[in-house]
Amino acid sequence: MSDAVPNGGELQPPDATGAAAVDAERRQFMHRMLNLGLGLWAAGAVGTSAYVAGRYVWPQPEGGQTGGERSVSFPLAKLDQEPMVKLLVEGQPVGVVRVDGTVHALGLVCTHLGCLVGWSPEARQMVCPCHASRYDINGAVVQGPAPAPLKRYDVRVAGDTVVIS
Ligand code: FES
């Protein structure tokens, strides 16, 4: 029995230096946990906001596709409603337009410094808002400073569906 309680069962006053060290460690631990919690909360808030903003700018293609697919499809009728249908193909932004009955799909990342180009129906060109590069409907550079053409994607119209790959 006597070996279960040190000092013969007599209570000793806590060591003031040890108690202060334990308090400091506890405060430091709580501070770290608070910072970790705030960091996780901030990361979650930023991630959620980015996802929502991304979905607003790049609506999810129909059929439950996520944009990471090699092949993305949408109803042909959508081109009657929008001058350019924007999609993600393998994670890359792609613009689909119809000119004189032919459907074209081009990458939207400008080859100059990577801004996203937009479709000008009047000019029938992709136009970069950053430094005014212009591309024709085949993606060729019409006006620099873009050094290379836009990426072209294969287009297949199958009945009422457009398939981009
Ligand atoms: S990024 Fe497009 S012209 Fe500069």
Topology diagram in text:
Layout (H helix, E strand, L loop, with lengths): L15 H42 L14 E4 L2 H4 L3 E5 L2 E8 L2 E6 L10 E3 L4 E3 L6 E2 L5 E3 L8 E2 L1 E4 L2 E4 L1
Total beta-strand segments: 11
Order of helices and strands: HEHEEEEEEEEEE
Percent of residues in helices comes to 25-40%
List the domain count as a whole number.
2
Distance between the termini: 80 Å
Mass-distribution shape: elongated
> Overall mean pLDDT score?
80
Instruction: Catalogue the unreliable spans.
Output: none
Percent of residues in β-strands = 25-35%
General description of the model:
The chain is of the alpha+beta class and 165 residues long. It folds into two domains: 6-57; 72-164, Rieske [2Fe-2S] iron-sulphur domain (Rieske Iron-sulfur Protein), CATH 2.102.10. The chain is 28% helix and 27% strand. It is built from two helices and eleven strands; from the N terminus they run αβαββββββββββ. The protein has a four-stranded antiparallel β-sheet, with no helix packed on it. A four-stranded antiparallel β-sheet has the order 5-6-7-8, with no helix packed on it. A three-stranded antiparallel β-sheet has the order 1-11-10, with no helix packed on it. The longest helix is centred in the N-terminal third of the chain and has 42 residues, at 16-57. The mean pLDDT is 80. Bound molecules: FE2/S2 (inorganic) cluster. FE2/S2 (inorganic) cluster binds next to loops.
